[in-house]
Amino acid sequence: MNIGLLLFIPHRHLENRVLDTISAAGFDVTIAQARLLQRIAANGSRLTELAEAAQVTKQTAGFLVDQLEKSGWVERVPDPTDGRARLVCLTDKAKAAAPIADGEVARVEAEWEKHVGKRRMAQLRETLEKLCEITDPYR
């Protein structure tokens, strides 16, 4: 099995666990919407930035943002640095779901640490953070 798949399978597991948990808490969001939500900066993001970060077309990002706005997850506000542009910002609903998602991430990481051991989990985190230095264009 190649390393990309070995990285993807645990990521998919984590993502599904988080979505199941926030869904059980009463927050309805699709995986595509959640992937876009994760990329919204604390002070808001422009649609073009979201599309690029999510590696989708601007039209797809716009469609997802429309859905998220109708569901109360985001709002569009004027960009204070450019009167012609708008920012996509998280709403209180999205901010309320974040600690639930973060809690599930912590539970999954604890399960993984229990399975592989504290030292290996620390090495895995350190290795992945090091790889991000050369693979993450949005660092």
TrEMBL record:
Give GO MF terms, alphabetically: DNA binding; DNA-binding transcription factor activity
Among PROSITE patterns, the record links this protein to:
HTH_MARR_1, HTH_MARR_2
KW Membrane (keyword) present = no
Tell me which InterPro entries the record gives. Answer: HTH_MarR-typ (IPR000835), MarR/SlyA-like (IPR039422), Tscrpt_reg_MarR-type_CS (IPR023187), WH-like_DNA-bd_sf (IPR036388), WH_DNA-bd_sf (IPR036390)
Annotated GO biological process: response to stress
Task: Domain (HTH marR-type): give its ranges.
Answer: 1-133
Keyword annotations from UniProtKB, A to Z? DNA-binding, Transcription, Transcription regulation
Identification of the protein by name: MarR family transcriptional regulator
The species is Amycolatopsis alkalitolerans
